[in-house]
Amino acid sequence: MITTTSRPDFLHSEVTPKAHYLNRRRFLGGLAAAGLAFPSLAGTKFTGVVKSPLSTAEKPTSYDAVTKYNNFYEFGTGKDQPAETAQNFQTSPWTVVIEGEVAKPRILDLDAILKIAPLEERIYRHRCVEGWSMVVPWIGFPLSALIKLAAPSASAKYVAFQSYYDIRQMPQARYGGIPFPYVEGLRLDEAMNPLTLLAVGLYGETLPNQNGAPLRLVVPWKYGFKGIKSIVKIRFTAKQPPTSWSMANAREYGFYSNVNPRVDHPRWSQAKERRMGEFFKRDTLLFNGYADQVAALYSGMDLRKDY
Amino acid sequence: MAPRLLSSRWAKVLVFALSLVPLLVLGWRGLRQDLGANPVEFITRSTGDWTLRFLLLTLAISPLRKQAGLAALIRFRRMLGLFSFFYGSLHLLTYVWFDKFFDLGDILKDVATRRFITIGLFGFLAMLPLAVTSTSGWIRRLGGRRWKLLHRLVYACVAAGVVHYYWLVKSDVRFPLVYASIAGVLLATRRYTESRGLVSGHGPVAPAVVSATTELIT
Q1: Sequence ranges of the domains in chain B
Q2: Nearest CB partner across the interface for B37, out of A69, A249, A268
Protein backbone atom coordinates (compact mmCIF):
# COMPACT_ATOMS: atom_id res chain seq x y z
CA MET A 1 0.00 0.00 0.00
CA ILE A 2 1.30 3.39 -0.87
CA THR A 3 0.71 6.23 1.53
CA THR A 4 0.70 9.72 0.13
CA THR A 5 2.21 12.71 1.80
CA SER A 6 -0.50 14.71 3.47
CA ARG A 7 0.90 16.65 6.31
CA PRO A 8 -1.45 19.05 8.05
CA ASP A 9 -1.49 22.56 6.65
CA PHE A 10 -0.38 25.07 9.22
CA LEU A 11 -2.12 28.31 10.05
CA HIS A 12 -0.34 31.58 9.39
CA SER A 13 -0.21 32.15 13.13
CA GLU A 14 1.80 28.99 13.43
CA VAL A 15 4.48 30.16 11.04
CA THR A 16 7.74 30.66 12.86
CA PRO A 17 8.13 34.31 13.96
CA LYS A 18 10.58 36.20 11.81
CA ALA A 19 13.04 36.81 14.65
CA HIS A 20 13.33 33.07 15.21
CA TYR A 21 14.11 32.16 11.70
CA LEU A 22 16.46 35.06 11.35
CA ASN A 23 18.38 33.48 14.20
CA ARG A 24 18.12 30.20 12.36
CA ARG A 25 19.34 31.95 9.25
CA ARG A 26 22.41 33.22 11.08
CA PHE A 27 23.01 29.72 12.42
CA LEU A 28 22.54 28.16 8.99
CA GLY A 29 24.71 30.87 7.48
CA GLY A 30 27.48 29.51 9.69
CA LEU A 31 26.73 26.03 8.38
CA ALA A 32 26.82 27.30 4.83
CA ALA A 33 30.13 28.96 5.50
CA ALA A 34 31.31 25.58 6.73
CA GLY A 35 30.32 24.19 3.37
CA LEU A 36 27.07 22.50 4.39
CA ALA A 37 23.91 22.72 2.36
CA PHE A 38 20.74 24.04 3.94
CA PRO A 39 17.10 24.06 2.82
CA SER A 40 15.53 27.17 1.38
CA LEU A 41 14.28 29.59 3.98
CA ALA A 42 10.92 31.19 4.46
CA GLY A 43 10.51 34.73 3.22
CA THR A 44 9.23 37.86 4.90
CA LYS A 45 5.67 37.82 6.19
CA PHE A 46 3.15 40.20 4.69
CA THR A 47 0.86 42.13 7.03
CA GLY A 48 -2.58 43.58 6.39
CA VAL A 49 -3.41 41.17 3.58
CA VAL A 50 -7.12 41.08 2.66
CA LYS A 51 -8.80 37.74 2.10
CA SER A 52 -10.29 37.66 -1.37
CA PRO A 53 -13.85 36.45 -2.04
CA LEU A 54 -12.45 34.86 -5.23
CA SER A 55 -10.66 32.21 -3.15
CA THR A 56 -11.67 28.56 -3.30
CA ALA A 57 -12.80 26.91 -0.06
CA GLU A 58 -10.70 23.86 -0.93
CA LYS A 59 -7.92 22.82 1.39
CA PRO A 60 -4.56 24.31 0.41
CA THR A 61 -1.80 21.89 -0.56
CA SER A 62 0.93 21.58 2.05
CA TYR A 63 3.59 24.30 2.12
CA ASP A 64 6.15 21.57 1.67
CA ALA A 65 4.67 20.34 -1.62
CA VAL A 66 4.03 23.86 -2.93
CA THR A 67 7.64 24.87 -2.35
CA LYS A 68 9.46 21.63 -3.18
CA TYR A 69 7.66 20.39 -6.27
CA ASN A 70 8.27 23.05 -8.88
CA ASN A 71 8.66 23.40 -12.60
CA PHE A 72 11.14 26.24 -13.10
CA TYR A 73 13.34 25.07 -15.96
CA GLU A 74 15.87 27.88 -15.56
CA PHE A 75 16.79 26.16 -12.30
CA GLY A 76 16.71 22.59 -13.63
CA THR A 77 14.11 20.26 -15.08
CA GLY A 78 13.76 18.05 -12.00
CA LYS A 79 10.79 19.04 -9.84
CA ASP A 80 12.87 19.00 -6.67
CA GLN A 81 15.76 20.89 -8.26
CA PRO A 82 14.58 24.54 -8.17
CA ALA A 83 14.08 24.45 -4.37
CA GLU A 84 17.82 23.83 -4.11
CA THR A 85 19.39 25.53 -7.09
CA ALA A 86 17.36 28.77 -6.76
CA GLN A 87 18.36 29.37 -3.15
CA ASN A 88 20.92 32.04 -3.89
CA PHE A 89 18.98 33.68 -6.71
CA GLN A 90 19.33 37.47 -6.34
CA THR A 91 15.89 39.11 -6.32
CA SER A 92 16.86 42.45 -4.85
CA PRO A 93 17.11 45.05 -6.29
CA TRP A 94 14.39 44.17 -8.82
CA THR A 95 12.82 46.27 -11.52
CA VAL A 96 10.10 45.62 -14.05
CA VAL A 97 10.02 47.38 -17.40
CA ILE A 98 6.56 48.30 -18.69
CA GLU A 99 6.64 49.22 -22.35
CA GLY A 100 5.05 48.86 -25.77
CA GLU A 101 1.65 50.17 -26.76
CA VAL A 102 1.07 52.21 -23.62
CA ALA A 103 0.58 55.86 -22.77
CA LYS A 104 2.76 55.58 -19.68
CA PRO A 105 5.77 53.31 -20.19
CA ARG A 106 7.88 53.13 -17.06
CA ILE A 107 10.31 51.16 -14.98
CA LEU A 108 8.98 50.14 -11.60
CA ASP A 109 10.98 48.79 -8.70
CA LEU A 110 9.46 46.19 -6.43
CA ASP A 111 8.49 48.69 -3.73
CA ALA A 112 6.48 50.64 -6.29
CA ILE A 113 4.85 47.46 -7.54
CA LEU A 114 3.82 46.46 -4.04
CA LYS A 115 2.06 49.84 -3.70
CA ILE A 116 -0.02 49.54 -6.89
CA ALA A 117 -2.95 47.88 -5.14
CA PRO A 118 -3.84 46.38 -1.75
CA LEU A 119 -2.43 42.88 -1.38
CA GLU A 120 -4.96 40.06 -1.26
CA GLU A 121 -4.76 36.43 -0.36
CA ARG A 122 -6.23 34.36 -3.19
CA ILE A 123 -6.51 30.63 -2.76
CA TYR A 124 -6.55 29.21 -6.28
CA ARG A 125 -6.58 25.78 -7.86
CA HIS A 126 -3.39 25.25 -9.87
CA ARG A 127 -3.42 22.68 -12.68
CA CYS A 128 -0.18 21.65 -14.38
CA VAL A 129 -0.23 20.53 -18.01
CA GLU A 130 1.49 17.34 -16.81
CA GLY A 131 -1.65 16.16 -15.03
CA TRP A 132 -1.12 17.13 -11.40
CA SER A 133 -2.73 19.90 -9.40
CA MET A 134 -2.44 21.85 -6.18
CA VAL A 135 -4.33 24.47 -4.22
CA VAL A 136 -2.13 27.47 -3.50
CA PRO A 137 -2.79 30.41 -1.16
CA TRP A 138 -1.21 33.18 -3.23
CA ILE A 139 -0.61 36.77 -2.13
CA GLY A 140 -0.90 39.39 -4.83
CA PHE A 141 -3.05 41.90 -6.63
CA PRO A 142 -5.02 41.87 -9.87
CA LEU A 143 -2.89 42.38 -12.98
CA SER A 144 -5.61 44.77 -14.17
CA ALA A 145 -4.47 47.33 -11.58
CA LEU A 146 -1.01 47.48 -13.15
CA ILE A 147 -2.48 47.57 -16.64
CA LYS A 148 -4.67 50.55 -15.78
CA LEU A 149 -1.60 52.32 -14.43
CA ALA A 150 0.22 51.75 -17.70
CA ALA A 151 -2.76 52.98 -19.74
CA PRO A 152 -2.53 50.80 -22.84
CA SER A 153 -3.36 52.49 -26.13
CA ALA A 154 -6.20 51.38 -28.39
CA SER A 155 -3.80 49.31 -30.49
CA ALA A 156 -2.75 47.16 -27.53
CA LYS A 157 -4.41 43.76 -27.89
CA TYR A 158 -1.99 41.48 -26.05
CA VAL A 159 0.32 41.55 -23.06
CA ALA A 160 3.72 39.87 -23.34
CA PHE A 161 5.77 38.90 -20.29
CA GLN A 162 9.43 38.07 -19.96
CA SER A 163 11.28 36.29 -17.14
CA TYR A 164 14.62 37.21 -15.74
CA TYR A 165 17.40 35.22 -17.34
CA ASP A 166 21.07 35.04 -16.45
CA ILE A 167 22.99 31.88 -17.22
CA ARG A 168 25.47 32.68 -14.44
CA GLN A 169 22.71 32.59 -11.87
CA MET A 170 20.89 29.79 -13.68
CA PRO A 171 23.54 27.37 -14.92
CA GLN A 172 20.98 24.54 -15.08
CA ALA A 173 19.09 26.43 -17.78
CA ARG A 174 21.41 25.14 -20.51
CA TYR A 175 19.76 21.72 -20.12
CA GLY A 176 16.19 23.03 -20.13
CA GLY A 177 15.57 22.24 -23.78
CA ILE A 178 13.39 25.32 -24.27
CA PRO A 179 14.44 28.83 -25.35
CA PHE A 180 15.25 31.39 -22.67
CA PRO A 181 14.48 34.00 -21.51
CA TYR A 182 11.10 32.46 -20.82
CA VAL A 183 8.28 34.43 -22.40
CA GLU A 184 4.53 34.22 -22.02
CA GLY A 185 1.52 36.16 -23.12
CA LEU A 186 -2.18 36.83 -22.63
CA ARG A 187 -4.85 38.51 -24.67
CA LEU A 188 -5.58 41.90 -23.13
CA ASP A 189 -9.09 40.86 -22.04
CA GLU A 190 -7.66 37.76 -20.35
CA ALA A 191 -5.09 39.93 -18.63
CA MET A 192 -7.82 42.30 -17.45
CA ASN A 193 -9.98 39.50 -16.01
CA PRO A 194 -10.35 39.93 -12.23
CA LEU A 195 -8.97 36.41 -11.63
CA THR A 196 -5.61 37.16 -13.27
CA LEU A 197 -3.17 37.77 -10.46
CA LEU A 198 0.30 39.22 -10.11
CA ALA A 199 1.58 37.21 -7.16
CA VAL A 200 4.29 38.38 -4.80
CA GLY A 201 3.83 35.76 -2.11
CA LEU A 202 2.30 32.52 -0.92
CA TYR A 203 1.31 31.17 2.47
CA GLY A 204 1.43 34.70 3.86
CA GLU A 205 5.08 35.29 2.95
CA THR A 206 7.13 36.64 0.07
CA LEU A 207 7.48 34.12 -2.77
CA PRO A 208 10.20 31.54 -2.29
CA ASN A 209 12.71 31.81 -5.16
CA GLN A 210 11.66 28.46 -6.64
CA ASN A 211 8.07 29.69 -6.91
CA GLY A 212 9.02 32.66 -9.08
CA ALA A 213 10.28 35.38 -6.74
CA PRO A 214 9.78 38.21 -6.50
CA LEU A 215 6.89 38.62 -8.92
CA ARG A 216 4.98 36.10 -11.01
CA LEU A 217 1.81 35.69 -12.96
CA VAL A 218 -1.05 33.41 -11.85
CA VAL A 219 -3.80 32.57 -14.34
CA PRO A 220 -5.83 29.92 -12.54
CA TRP A 221 -7.94 28.73 -15.49
CA LYS A 222 -4.87 28.01 -17.61
CA TYR A 223 -2.16 25.36 -17.31
CA GLY A 224 0.55 26.29 -14.84
CA PHE A 225 3.24 27.08 -17.41
CA LYS A 226 1.27 30.21 -18.42
CA GLY A 227 2.08 31.56 -14.95
CA ILE A 228 5.44 33.05 -15.88
CA LYS A 229 7.88 33.48 -12.99
CA SER A 230 10.35 36.19 -11.94
CA ILE A 231 8.95 38.79 -14.34
CA VAL A 232 11.23 41.60 -15.55
CA LYS A 233 9.31 42.90 -18.53
CA ILE A 234 5.67 43.52 -19.41
CA ARG A 235 5.11 44.64 -22.97
CA PHE A 236 1.82 45.62 -24.59
CA THR A 237 1.53 44.56 -28.22
CA ALA A 238 -0.84 44.61 -31.15
CA LYS A 239 0.10 41.10 -32.28
CA GLN A 240 -0.06 37.83 -30.43
CA PRO A 241 3.33 37.44 -28.74
CA PRO A 242 5.40 34.22 -28.92
CA THR A 243 5.37 31.96 -25.87
CA SER A 244 8.23 29.68 -24.79
CA TRP A 245 6.55 26.27 -24.71
CA SER A 246 4.76 26.94 -27.94
CA MET A 247 8.08 27.90 -29.54
CA ALA A 248 9.60 24.67 -28.24
CA ASN A 249 6.71 22.49 -29.41
CA ALA A 250 3.75 24.18 -31.07
CA ARG A 251 1.77 20.98 -31.54
CA GLU A 252 1.76 20.23 -27.83
CA TYR A 253 1.51 23.68 -26.27
CA GLY A 254 -0.72 26.41 -27.65
CA PHE A 255 -0.98 30.11 -26.89
CA TYR A 256 -4.22 29.77 -24.93
CA SER A 257 -3.52 26.61 -22.93
CA ASN A 258 -6.81 26.78 -21.08
CA VAL A 259 -7.43 23.86 -18.76
CA ASN A 260 -9.77 21.59 -20.69
CA PRO A 261 -10.55 17.96 -19.84
CA ARG A 262 -11.87 17.37 -23.35
CA VAL A 263 -8.78 18.50 -25.22
CA ASP A 264 -5.98 16.03 -24.59
CA HIS A 265 -2.32 16.81 -24.71
CA PRO A 266 -1.00 14.79 -27.67
CA ARG A 267 0.90 12.53 -25.30
CA TRP A 268 -1.50 12.20 -22.37
CA SER A 269 -5.11 12.65 -21.38
CA GLN A 270 -6.18 15.82 -19.60
CA ALA A 271 -9.46 14.31 -18.37
CA LYS A 272 -8.16 13.67 -14.86
CA GLU A 273 -5.59 15.05 -12.51
CA ARG A 274 -3.77 13.99 -9.39
CA ARG A 275 -4.16 16.54 -6.61
CA MET A 276 -0.96 16.60 -4.58
CA GLY A 277 -1.59 14.84 -1.27
CA GLU A 278 -4.45 12.76 -2.65
CA PHE A 279 -4.27 9.17 -3.80
CA PHE A 280 -7.16 8.90 -6.22
CA LYS A 281 -7.35 11.06 -9.31
CA ARG A 282 -10.06 13.67 -9.69
CA ASP A 283 -11.87 14.79 -12.79
CA THR A 284 -10.35 17.89 -14.33
CA LEU A 285 -12.86 20.74 -14.66
CA LEU A 286 -13.33 22.91 -17.73
CA PHE A 287 -11.29 26.11 -17.23
CA ASN A 288 -10.07 24.46 -14.02
CA GLY A 289 -13.45 25.15 -12.42
CA TYR A 290 -13.41 28.88 -13.26
CA ALA A 291 -15.78 28.60 -16.25
CA ASP A 292 -18.35 30.98 -14.70
CA GLN A 293 -15.78 33.78 -14.61
CA VAL A 294 -13.94 33.17 -17.89
CA ALA A 295 -15.94 31.08 -20.37
CA ALA A 296 -17.32 34.25 -21.97
CA LEU A 297 -13.80 35.23 -23.03
CA TYR A 298 -13.81 32.35 -25.48
CA SER A 299 -17.35 32.33 -26.82
CA GLY A 300 -17.39 31.44 -30.49
CA MET A 301 -13.87 30.00 -30.37
CA ASP A 302 -13.04 26.39 -31.18
CA LEU A 303 -11.13 25.34 -28.06
CA ARG A 304 -9.82 22.30 -29.87
CA LYS A 305 -8.18 24.49 -32.48
CA ASP A 306 -7.14 27.28 -30.12
CA TYR A 307 -5.70 25.00 -27.47
CA MET B 1 41.25 -13.29 -8.19
CA ALA B 2 38.19 -11.72 -9.77
CA PRO B 3 37.15 -14.94 -11.55
CA ARG B 4 37.41 -16.83 -8.26
CA LEU B 5 35.16 -14.34 -6.51
CA LEU B 6 32.71 -14.41 -9.38
CA SER B 7 32.33 -18.15 -9.29
CA SER B 8 31.84 -18.22 -5.53
CA ARG B 9 28.46 -19.48 -4.51
CA TRP B 10 27.93 -16.38 -2.36
CA ALA B 11 28.38 -14.10 -5.33
CA LYS B 12 24.96 -15.02 -6.63
CA VAL B 13 23.35 -14.41 -3.27
CA LEU B 14 25.08 -11.06 -3.10
CA VAL B 15 23.96 -10.01 -6.59
CA PHE B 16 20.42 -11.10 -5.77
CA ALA B 17 20.41 -9.06 -2.57
CA LEU B 18 21.91 -6.03 -4.31
CA SER B 19 19.31 -6.24 -7.04
CA LEU B 20 16.58 -5.92 -4.41
CA VAL B 21 18.08 -2.75 -2.96
CA PRO B 22 16.17 -0.36 -5.28
CA LEU B 23 12.90 -1.96 -4.19
CA LEU B 24 13.86 -1.85 -0.52
CA VAL B 25 14.83 1.82 -0.84
CA LEU B 26 11.45 2.57 -2.41
CA GLY B 27 9.65 0.68 0.34
CA TRP B 28 11.65 2.39 3.06
CA ARG B 29 11.08 5.85 1.63
CA GLY B 30 7.40 5.03 1.20
CA LEU B 31 7.09 4.07 4.86
CA ARG B 32 8.80 7.30 5.87
CA GLN B 33 6.53 9.28 3.52
CA ASP B 34 9.68 10.40 1.77
CA LEU B 35 8.67 9.93 -1.86
CA GLY B 36 8.25 13.64 -2.55
CA ALA B 37 5.09 15.57 -3.35
CA ASN B 38 4.05 13.11 -6.06
CA PRO B 39 4.75 9.59 -4.76
CA VAL B 40 3.13 7.82 -7.71
CA GLU B 41 5.32 9.72 -10.17
CA PHE B 42 8.36 8.92 -8.02
CA ILE B 43 7.59 5.19 -7.99
CA THR B 44 6.87 5.14 -11.72
CA ARG B 45 10.16 6.89 -12.46
CA SER B 46 12.20 4.75 -10.14
CA THR B 47 10.86 1.40 -11.35
CA GLY B 48 11.19 2.53 -14.97
CA ASP B 49 14.78 3.62 -14.43
CA TRP B 50 15.70 0.32 -12.82
CA THR B 51 14.06 -1.67 -15.60
CA LEU B 52 16.33 0.04 -18.11
CA ARG B 53 19.39 -0.19 -15.89
CA PHE B 54 18.97 -3.94 -15.38
CA LEU B 55 18.37 -4.40 -19.09
CA LEU B 56 21.64 -2.62 -19.84
CA LEU B 57 23.47 -4.61 -17.15
CA THR B 58 22.13 -7.80 -18.71
CA LEU B 59 23.35 -6.69 -22.11
CA ALA B 60 26.74 -5.77 -20.66
CA ILE B 61 27.42 -9.32 -19.52
CA SER B 62 28.33 -10.81 -22.86
CA PRO B 63 30.73 -8.10 -24.03
CA LEU B 64 32.32 -8.05 -20.58
CA ARG B 65 32.97 -11.75 -20.45
CA LYS B 66 34.37 -11.75 -23.93
CA GLN B 67 36.36 -8.54 -23.83
CA ALA B 68 37.45 -8.63 -20.21
CA GLY B 69 37.80 -12.37 -20.08
CA LEU B 70 35.38 -12.73 -17.19
CA ALA B 71 33.65 -15.88 -18.38
CA ALA B 72 32.11 -16.50 -14.95
CA LEU B 73 29.90 -13.45 -15.39
CA ILE B 74 27.47 -15.54 -17.43
CA ARG B 75 26.12 -16.94 -14.14
CA PHE B 76 24.46 -13.62 -13.40
CA ARG B 77 22.91 -12.87 -16.76
CA ARG B 78 19.63 -14.69 -16.23
CA MET B 79 19.17 -13.17 -12.79
CA LEU B 80 19.81 -9.64 -14.03
CA GLY B 81 17.47 -10.16 -16.96
CA LEU B 82 14.75 -11.43 -14.64
CA PHE B 83 15.25 -8.46 -12.34
CA SER B 84 14.75 -6.19 -15.31
CA PHE B 85 11.49 -8.02 -15.97
CA PHE B 86 10.62 -7.74 -12.27
CA TYR B 87 11.10 -3.95 -12.17
CA GLY B 88 9.34 -3.68 -15.54
CA SER B 89 6.35 -5.50 -14.07
CA LEU B 90 6.30 -3.14 -11.08
CA HIS B 91 6.54 -0.20 -13.48
CA LEU B 92 3.58 -1.46 -15.51
CA LEU B 93 1.61 -2.30 -12.37
CA THR B 94 2.18 1.21 -11.01
CA TYR B 95 0.71 2.65 -14.20
CA VAL B 96 -2.21 0.22 -14.41
CA TRP B 97 -3.08 0.54 -10.74
CA PHE B 98 -2.10 3.96 -9.39
CA ASP B 99 -2.37 5.94 -12.59
CA LYS B 100 -5.32 4.23 -14.32
CA PHE B 101 -6.95 2.38 -11.42
CA PHE B 102 -7.54 -0.62 -13.69
CA ASP B 103 -9.74 1.37 -16.09
CA LEU B 104 -9.28 -0.92 -19.09
CA GLY B 105 -10.98 1.41 -21.57
CA ASP B 106 -8.73 4.24 -20.53
CA ILE B 107 -5.65 2.04 -20.75
CA LEU B 108 -6.54 0.81 -24.24
CA LYS B 109 -7.10 4.40 -25.34
CA ASP B 110 -3.65 5.30 -24.03
CA VAL B 111 -2.08 2.35 -25.81
CA ALA B 112 -3.81 3.25 -29.07
CA THR B 113 -3.14 6.99 -29.05
CA ARG B 114 -0.01 7.69 -27.02
CA ARG B 115 3.07 6.45 -28.74
CA PHE B 116 5.29 6.45 -25.65
CA ILE B 117 2.82 4.11 -23.98
CA THR B 118 2.43 1.97 -27.09
CA ILE B 119 6.15 1.38 -27.35
CA GLY B 120 6.56 0.96 -23.60
CA LEU B 121 3.95 -1.78 -23.55
CA PHE B 122 5.58 -3.38 -26.59
CA GLY B 123 8.90 -3.44 -24.75
CA PHE B 124 7.27 -5.12 -21.77
CA LEU B 125 5.42 -7.70 -23.86
CA ALA B 126 8.65 -8.53 -25.66
CA MET B 127 10.21 -9.30 -22.28
CA LEU B 128 7.48 -11.81 -21.44
CA PRO B 129 8.66 -14.73 -23.64
CA LEU B 130 12.22 -14.08 -22.51
CA ALA B 131 11.25 -14.36 -18.86
CA VAL B 132 9.16 -17.46 -19.50
CA THR B 133 11.87 -19.27 -21.47
CA SER B 134 14.67 -18.29 -19.11
CA THR B 135 14.72 -21.70 -17.39
CA SER B 136 17.15 -24.49 -18.24
CA GLY B 137 14.16 -26.65 -19.16
CA TRP B 138 13.13 -24.21 -21.84
CA ILE B 139 16.64 -23.91 -23.21
CA ARG B 140 16.64 -27.70 -23.62
CA ARG B 141 13.17 -27.81 -25.11
CA LEU B 142 13.89 -25.07 -27.63
CA GLY B 143 17.41 -26.09 -28.38
CA GLY B 144 20.32 -23.68 -27.97
CA ARG B 145 20.11 -22.27 -31.48
CA ARG B 146 16.42 -21.41 -31.44
CA TRP B 147 16.64 -20.21 -27.84
CA LYS B 148 19.46 -17.82 -28.75
CA LEU B 149 17.50 -16.54 -31.70
CA LEU B 150 14.43 -15.90 -29.55
CA HIS B 151 16.48 -14.13 -26.94
CA ARG B 152 17.72 -11.62 -29.49
CA LEU B 153 14.37 -10.00 -28.66
CA VAL B 154 16.22 -8.36 -25.82
CA TYR B 155 17.58 -5.81 -28.30
CA ALA B 156 14.02 -4.83 -29.17
CA CYS B 157 13.28 -4.48 -25.44
CA VAL B 158 16.19 -2.11 -24.91
CA ALA B 159 15.36 -0.06 -27.98
CA ALA B 160 11.70 0.14 -26.94
CA GLY B 161 12.66 1.14 -23.39
CA VAL B 162 14.97 3.92 -24.51
CA VAL B 163 12.52 5.32 -27.08
CA HIS B 164 9.69 5.07 -24.50
CA TYR B 165 11.74 7.28 -22.19
CA TYR B 166 12.76 9.67 -24.96
CA TRP B 167 9.16 10.18 -26.10
CA LEU B 168 7.99 10.70 -22.56
CA VAL B 169 10.13 13.67 -21.51
CA LYS B 170 8.95 17.18 -22.24
CA SER B 171 12.19 18.80 -23.35
CA ASP B 172 15.22 17.76 -21.32
CA VAL B 173 16.38 14.61 -23.13
CA ARG B 174 19.73 14.21 -21.38
CA PHE B 175 18.84 11.07 -19.43
CA PRO B 176 17.17 9.24 -22.32
CA LEU B 177 20.26 10.03 -24.40
CA VAL B 178 22.58 8.66 -21.72
CA TYR B 179 20.65 5.37 -21.76
CA ALA B 180 20.60 5.40 -25.57
CA SER B 181 24.35 5.89 -25.83
CA ILE B 182 25.13 3.14 -23.33
CA ALA B 183 22.81 0.81 -25.23
CA GLY B 184 24.54 1.88 -28.45
CA VAL B 185 28.00 1.15 -27.05
CA LEU B 186 26.86 -2.27 -25.81
CA LEU B 187 25.32 -3.20 -29.15
CA ALA B 188 28.35 -1.93 -31.06
CA THR B 189 30.68 -3.97 -28.86
CA ARG B 190 28.56 -7.02 -29.53
CA ARG B 191 28.72 -6.56 -33.28
CA TYR B 192 32.44 -5.97 -33.02
CA THR B 193 33.09 -9.20 -31.12
CA GLU B 194 30.74 -11.14 -33.36
CA SER B 195 32.44 -9.89 -36.50
CA ARG B 196 35.80 -10.94 -35.01
CA GLY B 197 34.51 -14.40 -34.26
CA LEU B 198 34.03 -14.05 -30.50
CA VAL B 199 37.62 -13.29 -29.66
CA SER B 200 38.50 -13.09 -26.02
CA GLY B 201 40.99 -10.76 -24.44
CA HIS B 202 40.97 -7.15 -23.40
CA GLY B 203 39.20 -5.09 -26.00
CA PRO B 204 39.29 -1.30 -26.11
CA VAL B 205 35.59 -0.81 -25.45
CA ALA B 206 35.21 -2.88 -22.30
CA PRO B 207 36.58 -0.35 -19.79
CA ALA B 208 34.21 2.28 -21.17
CA VAL B 209 31.30 -0.09 -20.70
CA VAL B 210 32.34 -0.86 -17.14
CA SER B 211 32.62 2.76 -16.16
CA ALA B 212 29.35 3.61 -17.90
CA THR B 213 27.44 0.89 -16.11
CA THR B 214 28.95 1.60 -12.72
CA GLU B 215 28.02 5.22 -13.22
CA LEU B 216 24.48 4.08 -13.83
CA ILE B 217 24.13 2.06 -10.69
CA THR B 218 25.65 4.61 -8.34
Answers
A1: 2-217
A2: A69
